[in-house]
């Protein structure tokens, strides 16, 4: 079985391993031994150092101004040391950006840029990173609680923000649904060359499953392949899964080598909404 990659290039053996904080990470086979398959999933984080222009959401298209409330995030730790990691986030109120916990788990400070193409690290909005306290580095997958909120120090009033789906929104859209969702991000297109984008891209995805044992009611499995729309990759982590302008999940995990679909961590659950709404609008 291939090694499991988590957190911006940390590579673990196929057996037991630990992340940077000592959290035990079980092998994918152990975690999914009762699942329909044993696909390896990896956190979709990109290093900021890989900042050469390219496509982002694979098989997608340049976003233009279709999703101006989606931005790219940079992070610093509590000592103001820059963290070489980039993720995507969504403005859900003038002062809140929604992203993934595996983007913020060691971060204190953040900066978000809402430009479609970020040609230079200027013009960002600063904020504070808040990781869902139950996030444990995927040790408790599928209950990973892969959510985080960045509270902005200055409100963004020039961009209309996205909205959050109510509890149970995805439960009406079962497997086989023809409903399309948009995935949006600033991630990698050419994985082999290690090229990450500075441009926002979007693609179409559809639900594969929300009910299997390796989803557990916490995750949604999405399509994503040539001819079917977009597939998420490194750097798209934390980006939205959108039904119109409504966020139903954040990009959490993707298949190894970014081939095919991805898992989104659902935001339409009582737990998710309680955490997100615990921060002032």
Structure description:
The protein contains 3 helices and 21 strands. The protein has a 6-stranded antiparallel beta barrel. A 6-stranded antiparallel β-barrel has the order 7-8-9-12-11-10. The chain has a two-stranded antiparallel sheet with strand order 1-2. The protein has helices at 28-31, 101-104, 270-276; strands at residues 4-6, 10-12, 17-18, 24-25, 41-43, 61-62, 70-76, 82-93, 96-99, 109-113, 125-131, 148-152, 163-164, 180-185, 188-190, 195-196, 201-209, 219-222, 240-243, 246-255, 262-266. It has 281 residues and is mainly beta.
Task: Note the topology.
Layout: E1 4-6, E2 10-12, E3 17-18, E4 24-25, H1 28-31, E5 41-43, E6 61-62, E7 70-76, E8 82-93, E9 96-99, H2 101-104, E10 109-113, E11 125-131, E12 148-152, E13 163-164, E14 180-185, E15 188-190, E16 195-196, E17 201-209, E18 219-222, E19 240-243, E20 246-255, E21 262-266, H3 270-276
Helix content: under 10%
Number of helices: 3
Distance between the termini: 44 Å
Low-confidence stretches: 1-44, 46-56
> How many extended strands?
21
Cα radius of gyration in angstroms: 17 Å
SS-derived structural category: mainly beta
- Quaternary structure classification: single chain
- Spatial strand sequence of the major β-sheet: 14-17-18-21-20-19
The average pLDDT is 74
Beta-strand percentage range: 35-45%
Q: What best-fitting shape do the alpha-carbon axes yield? A: globular
* Helix-strand sequence: EEEEHEEEEEHEEEEEEEEEEEEH
Main sheet summary: 6 strands, antiparallel, barrel
